[in-house]
Model the fold of this input.
Amino acid sequence: MRKGNNLFHFRKKKTLDLTDRIPQIRVSICTGETTGGYFDKKEGRFIEVMKLAEDSDYREFFEMCGTEDIERVY
Done:
């Protein structure tokens, strides 16, 4: 086993750098699937961070962004 490798991979807390980025929740019109991420103003594209399926996923995403006032895009 190489040095630094761990048998168990624990989930690290992620924080989003919101400089020039707008947090958004994308909702599919067809399937209703919701995805949390951010829109990068410089690149003009949406970058997916996580799928939002349950209330706990929403709470985790809001905690990462630091706000619950996030735009929904359909």
In short: The CA atoms of residues 1 and 7 lie 9 Å apart. The chain has one domain: 21-73. The first helix runs from residue 55 to 65. The first strand starts at residue 21 and ends at 27.
